[in-house]
Design brief:
There is one protein chain. The chain is α/β, with parallel strands linked by helices. It contains 20 helices and 18 strands. The strands form three sheets. Strands 1, 2, 3, 4, 5, 6, 7 and 13 form an eight-stranded mixed β-sheet that branches. An eight-stranded mixed β-sheet has the order 8-17-15-14-9-11-12-18, with helices on both faces.
């Protein structure tokens, strides 16, 4: 079954081309093409059945194949090949786990965990067991609320680098801010700083080759995660690196929702203002962020740098920062790590659950958890964009609104530009900030990274920022929302049908 979709597409193209060259377009060409396509759809459908995927996902694929055979074939080729995930990433998972246990397994903080109370204790324990990452009580964090604040801090810290700079991004643009960062990196290489840059091959497919060559020629190492091999692409196409990571000298780190591009500074005419959230980290937890990068680098290059010069961090003297845990999740994981932690956050909340997500396509577990929390009398809020940047996901997300509203969830649509923050806040004390959306792709297909904050000043800042965002948002009223015209409802339902495939 290896690469059966790519092989099927190649055979279909070769047979069709050969027949066309000999006979032109006639009934025979259509017959042979249809026969080959049908054969491979039957094989793919049988393979999906044997994978024991979620029943809804399985049925959705089979319906798509029956109703739209050729479109379904192409769509599966691009987005549906999930059957070799375990084998593709099994080696990476076990290497990552062994490394995290060996290097991050230092204890000595049990008393501090006990002081956090029962609710945070459970989350910390779950995150540690699933993500192999301890909580740090000697890490300073600060919330960066927009592109201007984020990139100004990134530039300031990059210029201070003395030993190494590690970057890992989903999207990199060759525009003004991308060019500025490139020039700084080239200058740092000239100063003797090691620069390693990991970018996603699909997310950054528009990145100019000249941008990459300039950095490489200057001495920086720039590597694509999951490179594509045309014409068959490869079986890793659907598993993307959605992480946004910077680590500087092992002591300062950045994570959050902002990629590298001018639109994240609010300079895109379509969206205007861009609302996003990033986090700057100093101290012990930067080591975990460094480990995530180094393991991704090893997976992509087979080069390891797990040494003290990259894993020693400066430890702040002050111990009053609260708890910070950095968790990486992805298709290499034994569990759906970040989704499981989100689920625990929601189900263990005692007062409130506030969520901001630009793409909201929850699975049944998360959806049910939110509804039960609201029905139990908790203050459950969802903040989403008013205007879409990905239309299928946008329209699919709106089909969940009626049942959420009926259960008591308050939904707000952000009005000032595009809202791209990925935040969960529970009981005003615990929060998650990072790259993970509340959707199927983030939960099951993408490599993501999130910071979990327990009773930190940054968690309180996220609470304040969320309340400010609500002020410039319009609340969705169930009576008004139910008056959408039939055509729009039909479009939304169609998009929801496709949502398990995204």
């Amino acid at each position: 079954m290896k690469n059966i979709v790519g092989i099927g597409l190649l055979i279909l193209m070769l047979v069709s081309t050969w027949h066309f060259l000999l006979n032109g377009v006639d009934g025979g060409l259509i017959f042979y093409s249809s026969l080959i396509l049908t054969l491979f759809l039957v094989i793919i459908g049988f393979n999906i059945f044997l994978e024991n995927r979620d029943p809804i996902q399985t049925i959705t694929w089979l319906v798509i194949f029956c109703a739209f055979p050729f479109i379904g074939f192409i769509f599966y080729f691009l987005f549906g090949r999930n059957f070799r995930k375990d084998r593709i990433f099994r080696k990476k998972y076990f290497l990552d786990k062994q490394t995290f246990v060996k290097i991050s397994g230092e204890a000595g903080y049990n008393e501090r965990i006990m002081e956090m109370g029962e609710h945070p204790q459970q989350l910390i324990t779950l995150a540690n067991r699933l993500g192999n990452s301890p909580v740090s009580f000697t890490t300073e964090t600060r919330v960066l609320r927009n592109g201007e604040e984020t990139f100004s801090n990134i530039i300031e810290e990059l210029k201070k680098a003395r030993h190494h700079i590690h970057l890992e991004y989903y999207i990199v643009r060759d525009d003004r801010i991308g060019g500025l960062l490139k020039d700084i990196l080239i200058q740092k290489v000239k100063e003797g700083v090691k620069v390693r840059f990991l970018y996603d091959a699909v997310g950054s497919w528009k990145l100019a080759r000249s941008y990459i060559d300039e950095l490489k020629n200057a001495g920086a190492e720039m590597v694509a995660f999951g490179p594509l091999h045309l014409p068959l692409l490869n079986n890793k196409f659907n598993f993307r690196n959605h992480r946004k990571i910077i680590v500087i000298d092992g002591s300062v780190g950045f994570i959050g929702g902002l990629n590298i591009g001018d639109e994240y500074l609010g300079q895109d005419q379509k969206f205007g203002s861009w609302r996003d959230t990033h986090l700057i980290i100093r101290g012990e937890a930067v080591r975990t962020l460094q480990l995530i990068f180094l393991q991704d680098w090893y997976y992509s290059t087979n080069n390891s740098f797990l040494s003290d010069e990259y894993l020693m961090t400066g430890m702040p003297d002050h111990h009053g920062y609260g708890g910070v845990q950095l968790i990486g999740g992805g298709p290499d994981s034994e569990w759906t790590i970040i989704k499981s932690i989100f689920f625990k956050m929601i189900t263990s909340a005692e007062k409130s659950v506030w969520i901001a997500s630009p793409y909201f396509v929850p699975d049944d577990n998360i959806l049910q958890a939110l509804k039960v929390a609201a029905l139990s009398g908790l203050d459950v809020r969802l903040l989403v964009p008013k205007n879409p940047d990905k239309r299928i996901v946008f329209h699919a997300s709106r089909t969940y609104f009626p049942e959420l509203l009926a259960s008591g969830v308050r939904i707000f649509q952000y009005n000032e530009g595009f809202m791209h923050s990925k935040i969960i806040i529970v009981d005003d004390q615990m929060a998650s900030i990072g790259t993970t959306n509340i959707d199927m792709r983030s939960f099951h297909l993408n490599f993501e990274v999130n910071a979990f904050l327990y009773r930190t000043e940054s968690a309180q800042q996220l609470v304040n920022d969320y309340l400010e965002d609500i002020k410039v948002s319009k609340e969705v009223e169930i009576d008004e929302f139910s008056k959408r015209n039939f055509g729009l409802k039909l479009l939304e339902s169609t998009c929801r049908l496709l949502s398990p495939l995204l």
